[in-house]
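Hi there, hope your week has been kind to you so far. Do you reckon you could talk me through the fold, stretch by stretch? Thanks so much in advance, here it is.
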Amino acid sequence: GSPAKDQTLAQPFPPGVFGAFVRVSPDGTRALVAESSFDEIVQVDLATLAVQKLATVPRLFDVIFFSDTEVLLSTSPTNGTTLIHLNTATGAQHPVAEVSGPSGPLALDRSGNLYYVRSTFEFPAPPGSHALLRFCQAEVAEAVQGTRVLNESDADVITALDSGFDLVVNMTGDIFVTALLGPVNRVTLPGT
């Protein structure tokens, strides 16, 4: 086949900034793009390539779509992590959870449970110093509505990990976690 073609579609930030993430909306019409130099998150219309600034959020790390217009962000504004709900239609935001350590990856399963990898500020990280956390769907729904802010004691610790840089949950409920300097781990929950 033909080689892949790389072309610049949009330049939402000045050259020389550090990209944090890019995610396409569930309806496929927009992409959220963030950078961690100026802490900006923008929305790019994939048909017109128009760029709209959504918010300034300190130390962005990861994002997941909660719905077509709602996302959860992993940020580290202080010495801990804040998971933030952002409405991409209005720009409104509020905290959903507070977790210790630097910001880490997020994922949702088909039932709406939220997974997060809590990490450590130590480098290299000691073995087993990271943890895969699960916040149940009902508590996440309350926090997204703004009626409460979750913390680590609201989460189940699924397993200890040596590292956790990215995280996905497949359709059967298996959880895959990439390590910063190592393998991809597969976590299978009982009953899945």
Remarks:
- The chain has one helix and 16 strands.
- The first strand starts at residue 19 and ends at 24.
- The chain has a mean pLDDT of 87.
